[in-house]
Amino acid sequence: MEKMLTVKIWRGEEQGEYVTYQVASRENQTVLDVVTEIQRQVDPELSYRFSCRVGVCGTCAMTVNGKPRWTCRSHVKNVEENGAIVLEPLHNMPRIKDLVVDMTEFFDKWQKAGGEFIGTRTRHEKPALVDPNSKARKKADAAIECINCAVCYASCDVVEWNKDYLGPAALNRAWSLVNDERHADQKGVLKKAMSDGGCNSCHTQGSCMKHCPIGLSPTGSIAGLKKRSLLEFLSGE
């Protein structure tokens, strides 16, 4: 007899309900495979996001059995509980429909934290020579791989109850720019990161670091921003 997997999926917007589906359980099946099968063969009105399917873009992030994950890299055998999985949209963002959320506030906060790179040179000048082994460059590189999938934002308890908090992704971006010698407004970024809703709102619970699919540490970045701000304050800057 074919083994079946029970899949409960949130349907609707903020107000909605879980709908239960049954799909065949297969070897090496990812959660994204399951959602795609349901949408293509059972319920074509199911809404969700995905793009690359190979763990590069982060578009397919959802809440799987209560935890935010990239579903393309989440194998069912590693997340199912008693032959079942429960799928919801990412937390801490408005729900548009089914498994799709509105990420506007997430990206707005990224900008509010000074996330836009401003170069010190024009295209007519030679590129800046950056020592890849310098302490500042290594700090910037440690944070620069973030692709804004919002998993850390969805897992953050502070974001849940404090909507003014910029969130771990935005502050992680600020840390990379504060350490990037090519960036024209390092002090401005630090000021924005330390303003209301910035670093001092973080409770250092580490959920962002725990759930980051690529192993970044926004917690460490936020701690770095706090330390940098204190050192500049003590030095009179």
TrEMBL record:
It is an enzyme of class 1 (oxidoreductase). Pfam families: Fer2_3, Fer4_17. InterPro entries: 2Fe-2S_ferredoxin-like_sf, 2Fe-2S_ferredoxin-type, 2Fe2S_fd_BS, Beta-grasp_dom_sf, Helical_ferredxn, SDH/FRD_Iron-Sulfur, Succ_DH/fum_Rdtase_Fe-S, Succ_DH/fum_Rdtase_N. The keyword Ribosomal protein does not apply. Pathway: Carbohydrate metabolism; tricarboxylic acid cycle; fumarate from succinate (bacterial route): step 1/1. PROSITE patterns: 2FE2S_FER_1, 2FE2S_FER_2. Residues 5-93 form the 2Fe-2S ferredoxin-type domain. Its cofactor is [4Fe-4S] cluster; [3Fe-4S] cluster; [2Fe-2S] cluster. SUPFAM superfamilies: 2Fe-2S ferredoxin-like, alpha-helical ferredoxin. Its EC number is 1.3.5.1. Keywords: 4Fe-4S, Iron, Iron-sulfur, Metal-binding, Oxidoreductase. CDD domains: fer2. Belongs to the succinate dehydrogenase/fumarate reductase iron-sulfur protein family. This is Succinate dehydrogenase iron-sulfur subunit. It comes from Advenella mandrilli.
